[in-house]
Recover the amino acids of this structure.
């Protein structure tokens, strides 16, 4: 009789675990199906669809003015830049001449949006790796930007300040003063971010060499934004295809070659300095003039296909419109940065620990409504 | 040696971070941005452009500026505005004129995009700054913006 029958039938199986859809580190309703071996990750499968609202289909129903407010609800942390993308697409298709004042204001608010998004990311990322203080510090500075938005646009998050042909109304008289105050304030606070978190030895150990993405992989996965630039892939749309007033300003494209979580972190911190420099170059000489050009009440795009890309806080957002000459688009496709950046999560997390997955995911800076739409 | 060196470096970075938090611990009252809501209800003032809800201002003689042109209804992306109108005989000219019966606003469906107010040619609807919109029943969110017995101000044409 075989005495080893019990042990010879033993076989090892993979262990599956759900991370999310209500996990705090997934920043929304994202479900990750992890295949793990002990603490080592063997596979990460993102499961989407929990916050799908069929925004692209709703765009086919709405007029071009109405589409703009739907894009607020995609990447809600850079809603102004999303609005700008749709407006630029429509304006380019209609070949409208946009006043300089509109271009400058759009760029200033866009860069403020980027700083607001990065401060929120910095706070939440610190919380993901176990430093709760950063959360309060990040939100403290973001609050001041939100006040600027609220005073000028009327809303803090879903601003809907752009319309095809310009801006909905002129900036508030306090806008310039408040923005300057914020820049002066934030210049003293951003070095604090470095002293509090960047140099911290625990944080360095969590970040350095974790979630490495090579430049070749970044390109083949379609990574964009700080994720691509952390791997040395020069992909800043603002630099390569400038839109609005970005061709008038000088700024540096921040690049790091390490490709790990710390590189992506440093890219975002440096980008906040660059955004502040862009705002400083523009804020003192906002040209006078109208903030709208007259468009027809019913906008009809000419027949054809139109594409416009912009750099949101997360990467490259593309808006692709097919028009048949009617008042609605025949098809409207958003190329969202979050979707491409999420697709490489499996690649950079396999072989690491579960804690490293949280750190990698925090530095990818995904916003789930942007991925699901 | 590097073992003790690492410990010293770790303590140094921790103290650097704690110097930041310690500074705020000692000066927390200065520069605090948190608000004591709802205790500060009397002093809390929203910005004048804040989008709380759509309202229709009436003057003291119960007259509004809405002509019933339905441009807001067309501009609304999600059907939050319904206008019930008919043609009534204008008392002054004796001609039949389009007048609103009810300007219905569904606050529960509104996304605060502001397109209706942008579209209004007579500035009949504006943003109100109140934001405490929670109610106990969904039906309270459907509002009739024009007051009963109100009529359009004389001389307002779209």
């Amino acid at each position: 009789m075989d005495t080893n029958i019990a042990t010879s039938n033993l076989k090892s199986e993979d262990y599956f675990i759900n991370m999310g859809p209500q996990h705090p580190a997934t920043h929304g309703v994202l479900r990750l199906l992890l295949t793990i071996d002990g603490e080592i990750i063997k596979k990460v499968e993102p499961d989407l669809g929990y916050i799908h609202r069929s925004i692209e289909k709703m765009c086919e129903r709405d007029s071009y003015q109405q589409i703009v407010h739907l894009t607020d609800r995609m990447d809600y942390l850079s809603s102004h830049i999303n609005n700008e993308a749709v407006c630029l697409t429509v304006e380019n298709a209609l070949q409208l001449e946009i006043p300089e004042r509109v271009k400058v204001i759009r760029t200033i608010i866009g860069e403020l949006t980027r700083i607001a998004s990065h401060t929120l990311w910095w706070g939440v990322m610190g919380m993901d790796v176990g430093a709760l203080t950063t959360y309060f510090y990040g939100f403290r500075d973001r609050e001041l930007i939100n006040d600027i938005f609220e005073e000028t646009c009327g809303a803090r998050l879903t601003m809907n300040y752009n319309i095809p042909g310009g801006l909905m109304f002129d900036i508030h008289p306090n806008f310039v003063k408040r923005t300057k105050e914020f820049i002066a304030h934030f210049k003293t606070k951003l070095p604090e971010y470095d002293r509090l978190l960047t140099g911290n030895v625990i944080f360095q150990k969590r970040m350095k060499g974790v979630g490495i993405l090579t430049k070749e992989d970044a390109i083949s996965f379609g990574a964009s934004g700080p994720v691509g630039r952390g791997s040395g892939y020069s992909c800043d749309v603002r630099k390569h295809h400038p839109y609005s007033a970005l061709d008038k300003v000088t700024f540096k494209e921040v690049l790091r070659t390490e490709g790990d979580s710390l590189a992506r972190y440093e890219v975002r911190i440096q980008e906040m300095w660059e955004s502040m420099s862009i705002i400083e170059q523009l804020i003192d000489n906002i040209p006078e003039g109208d903030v709208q050009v007259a468009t027809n009440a019913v906008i009809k795009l000419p027949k054809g296909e139109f594409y416009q890309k912009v750099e949101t806080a997360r990467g490259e957002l593309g808006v692709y419109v097919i028009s048949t000459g009617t008042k609605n688009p025949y098809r409207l496709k958003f190329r969202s940065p979050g979707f491409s950046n999420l697709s490489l999560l499996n690649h950079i997390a396999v072989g690491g620990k579960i804690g490293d997955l949280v750190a990698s995911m925090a530095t990818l800076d995904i916003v789930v409504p942007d991925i699901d739409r | 040696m590097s073992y003790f060196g690492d410990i010293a470096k770790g303590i140094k970075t921790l103290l650097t971070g704690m110097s930041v938090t310690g500074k705020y611990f000692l000066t927390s009252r200065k520069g605090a941005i948190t608000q004591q809501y709802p205790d500060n209800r009397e002093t809390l003032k929203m910005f004048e452009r804040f989008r709380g809800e759509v309202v229709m201002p009436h003057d003291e003689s119960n007259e509004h500026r809405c002509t019933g042109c339905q441009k807001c209804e067309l501009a609304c992306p999600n059907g939050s505005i319904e206008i019930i109108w008919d043609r009534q005989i204008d008392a002054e000219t004796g001609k039949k004129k389009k007048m609103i019966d009810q300007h219905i606003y569904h606050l529960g469906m509104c996304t605060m995009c502001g397109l209706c107010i942008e579209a209004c040619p007579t500035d009949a609807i504006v943003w109100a700054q109140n934001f405490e919109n929670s109610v106990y029943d969904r039906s309270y969110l459907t509002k009739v913006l024009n007051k009963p017995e109100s009529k359009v101000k004389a001389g307002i044409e779209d």
